């Protein structure tokens, strides 16, 4: 088993060694750190470095040999079918992560994990007590966090020039059979945790740091990864060792942590320096692969974590009917879970130009090209600190871009032209901005729905109930009613034939928001929009008042016309009755007072909604000025007085 895994690791290293020198430099330059300007020109020639972590469910037929052959087969198939664009390493999942992957691989979320998952730190318990967390963290979340933290490190400082010779000597000692360190801390992750021994058990070791059990048998421990030791002191299972020197000397009396007792002081310091500066490779992708027996053979689920954007992709589930097909189906699942990464090079109106990573490296099988027409990308903004580490990563909300038909073959230049769909005014910048990276991550078509939650922009967490939500495909005007939001402001959005859907949020016939989205990427998405209820109440009140105004203007005009006719006929008593009835009609001042009182009660904390409410009332006041002026009535009075004077009354 161990020799087979060694061959898998060495094959991955050999693949790295044969990559063209420029591309190899690009791999080093495009790690988790900010990419210097000099490396921009080789982005298209930079292969993806991918780590496949495999969780095997317990099964009699999945022997250690079968597992090792599947790991080696993933690398072989990648080399044969994909070639230069991918560099793959594969290893079994550590035990605790294996349980989490088999239980709920689809529930993994970076935001649900503790800080260890994103900053590469591993918290150790103090001697005699557990770690204190701000909130309860179950074992699965902590296992995921610690494992991902080992693969998503912060960039360490370069070792001083005067230590490089000692570090190299320490490296040789580590892999020399004299110390035996690499027997347990195996490549590629410097651990055999998750590996299986020939008798079908997990590899565990007695390193002399635990007391014997009650039966007198030695107690055994898992092998931790050695990545990031500079950030994980204190050491050992209970934190009793403050330094690496103590681990290899004071707490290694029986050479359980490697045969170090015979080393000279200089050799010991070289080994310590090698361990102190040991950091994981700069992976671009981590693909989690879970394999478990099912009623129809074997169920395989793959899910990608893009390291640079810290985003999990859509789980890809498939099945293999026979054990002999397991390797092929597992490779197809890994390939299906993979999504391309690009830099946003330019933004022009409704279009963006993307530069695709590894697009200049030829595929062995052209049908496996990463990008084709209709491919959807999500824009991601990454804010780096001065050392190039990720300080903050934000997925641009309600924004997607789609590869156009004419840009289906980007291999020659590494660039594709995409159409931009967004619900924001200015989601992206048209130029590079120092430590701010504008990236775009591909989308695997999900098969699960999302729940849209509408909340008030001005009053956080206030649900907007009764709002209509419609959807239509991009570049189509044919809308479909998805439903009305319930009392919690929720409405389900199901996947459709078109991956990208544009949602229209309406209230009282007014379109309040256009929200492009890919249903299923997140189980729940929250949209903060204007609470339009007050505007709708104002519109209802103003509409009723305007109808009342139309009726009043009509009645007034009829009375004025009749009064004039009676005056002209000399029927002044009847004319006086009509004029008195005119005087009893509501006046403009009364309407203005009612408008003012109602407007005071219809206030909104959203300035945009309030502006629309004010506009409704202002328009109504202009109508009052135009149609309820006193001049026509005064004119009738003057005519009546004149007629009465001529008649001698």
Short structural summary:
It is built from 15 helices and 20 strands. The protein has helices spanning 2-17, 21-29, 64-82, 95-104, 116-119, 139-151, 164-175, 244-248, 265-276, 326-337, 533-569, 572-584, 588-601, 607-627, 631-646; strands at residues 48-56, 86-92, 285-294, 297-306, 311-312, 316-320, 341-348, 351-356, 376-384, 390-395, 399-403, 415-422, 436-442, 450-456, 468-472, 480-484, 490-493, 501-507, 510-517, 524-529.
What secondary-structure arrangement, pairings included, does this model have?
Layout lengths: L1 H16 L3 H9 L18 E9 L7 H19 L3 E7 L2 H10 L11 H4 L19 H13 L12 H12 L68 H5 L16 H12 L8 E10 L2 E10 L4 E2 L3 E5 L5 H12 L3 E8 L2 E6 L19 E9 L5 E6 L3 E5 L11 E8 L13 E7 L7 E7 L11 E5 L7 E5 L5 E4 L7 E7 L2 E8 L6 E6 L3 H37 L2 H13 L3 H14 L5 H21 L3 H16 L3
Parallel strand pairs: 1-2, 1-3, 14-20
Antiparallel strand pairs: 3-4, 4-5, 4-6, 7-8, 7-13, 8-12, 9-10, 9-11, 9-13, 11-12, 14-17, 15-16, 15-18, 18-19
């Amino acid at each position: 088993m161990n020799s087979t895994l060694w061959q898998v690791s060495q094959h991955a290293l050999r693949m790295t060694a044969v990559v063209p020198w420029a591309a190899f430099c690009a791999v080093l330059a495009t790690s988790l750190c900010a990419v210097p300007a000099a490396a921009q020109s080789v982005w298209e020639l930079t292969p993806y470095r991918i780590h496949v972590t495999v969780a095997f469910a317990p099964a009699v037929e999945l022997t250690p040999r079968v597992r090792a052959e599947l790991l080696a087969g993933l690398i072989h198939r990648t080399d044969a079918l994909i070639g230069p664009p991918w560099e793959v390493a594969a290893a079994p999942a550590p035990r605790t992560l294996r349980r989490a992957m088999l239980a709920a691989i689809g529930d993994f979320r970076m935001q649900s994990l503790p800080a260890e998952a994103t900053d590469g730190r591993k918290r150790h318990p103090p001697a005699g007590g557990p770690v204190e967390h701000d909130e309860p963290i179950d074992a699965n979340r902590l296992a995921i966090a610690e494992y991902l933290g080992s693969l998503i490190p912060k960039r360490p400082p370069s070792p001083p020039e005067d230590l490089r010779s000692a570090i190299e000597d320490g490296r040789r000692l580590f892999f020399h059979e004299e110390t035996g360190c690499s027997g347990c801390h195996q490549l590629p992750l410097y651990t055999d945790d998750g590996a299986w021994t020939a008798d079908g058990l997990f590899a565990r070791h007695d390193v002399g740091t635990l007391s014997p059990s009650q039966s007198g048998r030695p107690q055994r421990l898992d092998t931790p990864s050695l990545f990031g030791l500079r950030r994980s002191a204190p050491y050992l299972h209970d934190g009793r060792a403050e330094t690496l020197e103590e681990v290899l000397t004071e707490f290694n009396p029986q050479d359980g942590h490697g045969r170090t007792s015979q080393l000279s002081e200089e050799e010991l310091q070289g080994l310590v320096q090698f361990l102190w500066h040991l950091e994981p490779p700069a992976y671009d992708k981590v693909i989690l692969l879970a394999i478990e027996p099912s009623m129809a053979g074997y169920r395989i689920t793959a899910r990608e974590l893009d390291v640079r954007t810290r985003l999990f992709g859509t789980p890809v589930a498939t099945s293999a009917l026979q054990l002999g097909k397991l390797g092929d189906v597992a490779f197809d699942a890994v390939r299906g879970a993979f999504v391309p990464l690009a830099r946003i090079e330019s933004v022009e109106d409704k279009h963006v130009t993307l530069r695709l990573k590894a697009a200049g490296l030829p595929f062995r099988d052209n049908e496996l090209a990463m990008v084709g027409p209709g491919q959807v990308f999500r824009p991601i903004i990454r804010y780096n600190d001065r050392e190039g580490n990720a300080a903050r990563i934000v997925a641009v909300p309600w924004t997607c871009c789609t590869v156009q038909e004419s840009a289906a073959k980007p291999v020659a230049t590494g660039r594709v032209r995409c159409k931009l769909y967004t619900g924001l005014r200015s989601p992206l910048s048209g130029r590079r901005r120092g430590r701010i990276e504008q990236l775009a991550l591909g989308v695997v078509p999900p098969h699960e729905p999302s729940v849209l939650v509408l909340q008030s922009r001005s009053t956080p967490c206030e649900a907007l109930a009764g709002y209509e939500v419609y959807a239509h495909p991009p570049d189509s005007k044919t809308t479909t009613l998805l439903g009305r939001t319930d009392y919690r402001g929720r409405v389900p959005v199901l996947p459709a034939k078109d991956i990208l859907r544009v949602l229209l949020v309406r209230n009282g016939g007014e379109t309040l928001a256009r929200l492009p989205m890919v249903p299923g990427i997140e189980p729940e998405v929250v949209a903060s929009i204007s609470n339009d209820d007050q505007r709708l109440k104002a519109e209802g009140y103003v509409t009723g008042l305007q109808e009342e105004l139309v009726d009043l203007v009509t009645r007034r005009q009829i009375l004025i016309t009749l009064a004039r006719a009676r005056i002209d006929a000399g029927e002044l008593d009847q004319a006086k009755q009509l004029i008195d009835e005119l005087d009893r009609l509501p006046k403009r001042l009364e309407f203005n007072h009612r408008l003012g009182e109602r407007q005071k009660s219809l206030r909104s904390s959203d300035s945009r909604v309030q502006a629309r409410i004010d506009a409704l009332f202002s328009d109504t006041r202009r109508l009052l000025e135009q149609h309820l002026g006193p001049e026509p009535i005064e004119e009738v009075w003057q005519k009546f007085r004149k007629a009465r004077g001529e008649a001698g009354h």
